[in-house]
Write a structure and sequence with these properties.
- Chain A: Its main location: cytoplasm.
- Chain A: It comes from Calocera viscosa (strain TUFC12733).
- The complex is a heterodimer of chains A (228) and B (232).
- With 228 residues, chain A is of the alpha+beta class.
- Chain A has helices at residues 156-163, 169-174, 196-210, 216-225; strands spanning 2-4, 9-10, 21-22, 26-28, 36-38, 42-46, 51-55, 68-76, 80-84, 91-98, 114-121, 129-132, 144-146, 150-153, 179-183, 188-193.
- In chain A, a hairpin with a 7-residue loop joins strand 11 and strand 12.
- Chain B has a single domain, classed as GHMP Kinase, N-terminal domain (Ribosomal Protein S5, domain 2, 2-Layer Sandwich).
- In chain B, 25% of the residues lie in helices and 29% in strands.
- Chain B has helices spanning 65-78, 115-132, 190-215; strands spanning 7-11, 19-25, 28-38, 51-57, 91-98, 140-149, 152-154, 162-170, 177-183.
- In chain B, the strands form 2 sheets. A 5-stranded mixed β-sheet of chain B has the order 1-2-3-5-4.
- Classes of the chains: A alpha+beta (228), B alpha+beta (232).
Chain lengths: 228, 232
């Protein structure tokens, strides 16, 4: 693991492998030698299977296919909703992209409602598109409207850490009180707990985790001291 | 040869911007903030790339002709390092402000912005882009101010000693490519001055690498935040 700046060249191992899988932050140039360069600053990660990517600390979401995101309904057009997912453009969510939806039986989402959706289409030239089900099974799979609850915003890196099952924060909070949480890859976390106090406690803990100045140990200590 | 003034970098102080950087080079301080890619208004929308909006604000007074000229400088120096084609139909906003006053008198009632402020702004802009992490880049642009003191080229001139500013784009370990130059002097001295300025800009680039490495939790643990002065 090393830190790279944009323009840094990734030197492939010798002998060069048959294929390289380049993830976020890396580009292969079509100049002689086909060098691989970083186009984002961050920590370079590599696996023995030749998967390489850069973990960048950032707050602005850039849509990528298959990522789960939390969106806010911005307005409804005839057969689709336009959803704010924090990217440069509003995403489109077809009104029928929900489990069991037919022309006569559709979910009735209002402006301001929250949804947990998967990005089904994301490329730089088009507005992103969302789905609230698994396209192959047509089951909700956890996607759909997020009723009640509270949404907090954090950095993209914090969301990735919260989605890691080995991360300490959510399990340690769960030992204190029950709650539901949905983490979007777009820097948004939705939570629903039994009381306002618990909701505030969780959002404070996430805010502390997000803060660059506080260490993980301080956050863990804060959770331990919680009296909810 | 001389050292650069002591460099100090503070990141992420502006909570509403995607990225921000406050860079001090000695007593010259510049603040930069970057937001984007975000929604763009239809008059500025470009089908194949992002629109880069640069705003320059002086410390005193309102932005006038000089601020606009510096805006053009920064836009032309930074654009080569940005991969704007990766975010079509969007807006990237860069705002710069000088935080240190000029020591010279105002020119035609407009506040002055020194060459070293200009260089600090160029460096702060790069650091703000790196702090934001949301704009794809093909290199990092670093700037260096030069001056003459008793007939000797120096990289830490006072405002009266300033003779020029240079900006270089660094890609990996390649030598920096010149992206901005303004300088008053003898033509015969050009190569030498540009080369010394490039070395100064490299020091800024190395400083940025160390600072960002440390912020990411990698790299050496330094006791103080300020860069140790390098001798050329």
């Amino acid at each position: 693991m090393s830190y790279v700046l944009p323009g840094d060249v990734l030197t492939p191992p010798a002998p060069p492998p048959k294929s390289l899988k380049l993830g976020p932050g890396l580009l292969m140039l079509h100049t002689p030698g086909n060098p691989v360069i970083a186009h984002r600053p961050g920590v370079l990660h590599s696996t023995p299977k030749q998967q390489h990517w850069i973990e960048t600390e950032s707050r602005r979401y850039i849509p990528a296919s298959q990522e789960s995101v939390i969106g806010v309904i911005a307005y409804r057009a005839a057969d689709a909703y336009r959803v704010d997912i924090g990217s440069a453009h509003l995403a489109t969510l077809d009104a029928l992209s929900f489990e069991g939806a037919t022309k006569r039986n559709r979910p009735n989402l209002k402006v301001g409602n929250l949804v947990y959706a998967r990005v089904s289409l994301a490329n730089r030239d088009m507005d992103p598109e969302l789905e609230c089900f698994d396209a192959t099974t047509r089951k909700a799979d956890g996607f759909g409207e997020l009723k009640d609850g509270f949404m907090v915003e954090c950095s993209l890196g914090t969301c990735r850490r919260l989605l890691d099952s080995k991360h300490f924060l959510l399990p340690s909070l769960a030992q204190k009180f029950p709650f539901e949480v949905a983490v979007g890859m777009n820097g948004r976390v939705w939570l629903r707990a039994g009381s306002v106090k618990a909701t505030v406690a969780i959002s404070r803990a996430i805010g502390m985790l997000d803060d660059r100045q506080t260490s993980d140990d301080e956050v863990a200590a804060f959770v331990q001291l919680m009296d909810v | 040869m001389t050292d650069l003034p002591t460099l100090k970098l503070d990141l992420g102080e502006l909570s509403r911007a995607d990225g921000s950087a406050r860079l001090a080079s000695g007593s010259t301080i510049a603040l930069a903030s970057v937001t984007g890619p975000i929604d763009v208004r239809s008059g500025w929308e470009k089908p194949e790339e992002a629109f880069l909006e640069v705003n320059v604000r002086p410390l005193e007074g309102i932005a006038g002709t000089q601020a606009r000229a510096i805006m053009q400088t920064l836009k032309s120096a930074l654009t080569p390092s940005l991969l704007l084609g990766r975010a079509p139909r969007s807006l990237i906003q860069l705002t710069l402000q000088s935080l240190s006053p000029s020591s010279l008198l105002p020119n035609y009632a407009q506040p002055r912005i020194s060459l070293s402020s200009k260089a600090a702004m160029m460096n702060a802009a790069t650091a703000a882009f790196l702090d934001a992490g949301s704009v794809s880049m093909r290199g990092v642009v670093c700037a260096c101010v030069v001056g003459m003191r008793d007939g000797v080229l120096v990289l830490d001139p006072t405002e009266k000693e300033e003779t020029g500013t240079f900006g270089f784009m660094f890609q990996g370990s390649e030598p920096g490519e010149l992206v901005w130059a303004e300088w008053a002097g003898e033509e015969a001295d050009w190569e030498k001055v540009a080369s010394e300025a490039r070395t100064g800009a490299e020091i800024v680039r190395d400083f940025f690498r160390a600072q960002f490495e440390r912020a990411a939790g990698l790299g050496d643990e330094d006791e103080d935040e300020e860069m140790v002065e390098h001798e050329l």
